[in-house]
Design a protein that fits this description.
By secondary structure, the protein is an alpha+beta fold. It has seven helices and nine strands, in the order βββββαααβαβαβαβα.
Length: 205
């Protein structure tokens, strides 16, 4: 008998695969969003994948989330009535944003970040940087200068200067770098999902 879930793993730690209930695409679960149905038939985002119950998986994509909501895909996959909140997209976006900012805060407390253009430039010159964080409302010229200093380092520009500043303990922060390590890897995974979710919806008109 074939296995009920589509999973794949090997000695390299390759992620398990899951099938999107709306699109049918099979993708690594780290690129997807997990939901469960609560005891009151309410749909609950489970972005950490820790809640009990059967997981309902969606690709991290605005169109897919909208399709799942309007097409009754959650109820079909769960084979039961499911109450889907009207602001599901906003809730998921908020949860992913909070998770990313929490990880940045943890990296700061661990001494794994530098903030401010001059300190960022010095840290990039030293090496060992995994992520450049650039405020999405910062000047384009400043972001371009930082990118030029380390063109191969991933740049995350999902957060405002105020959001970055809040976790840095200052009114605002435009340029931040995160050193290599486990926190940086987790941040990259979460930010990848958030970036995919925030891509503009397809205009079919």
């Amino acid at each position: 008998m074939a296995p009920r879930t589509n999973k794949r793993s090997d000695d390299t730690g390759e992620a398990s695969l899951r099938r999107c209930i709306a699109s049918g695409q099979v993708r690594p679960k780290e690129d997807m969003l997990r939901f469960v149905v609560g005891p009151e038939n309410d749909l609950v985002p489970d972005l950490e994948g820790r809640l009990p119950g059967r997981g309902l998986w969606l690709s991290a994509d605005r169109d897919v989330v909208n399709t799942a909501c309007t097409g009754n895909h959650f109820a079909k996959a769960a084979r039961r009535q499911v109450t889907v909140p009207d602001d599901l997209f906003e809730r998921v976006d908020s949860l992913l944003t909070r998770r990313c900012l929490d990880l940045i805060g943890l990296a700061r407390r661990a001494g794994d970040v530098a903030v401010g253009f001059e300190k960022v430039r010095a840290r990039l010159a030293k090496g060992g940087v995994a992520i450049v964080l650039a405020a999405r409302d910062g000047a384009d010229g400043g972001r371009d200068k930082v990118r030029a200093l380390a063109p191969r380092v991933p740049v995350i520009d999902l957060f405002t200067a105020a959001e970055l500043g809040a976790v840095m303990g200052r009114p605002h922060a435009v340029h931040v770098v995160v050193d290599e390590g486990g926190l940086a890897k987790s941040l990259l995974r979460q930010a990848k999902r958030l970036a995919a979710l925030r891509r503009p919806a397809t205009d079919e008109n």
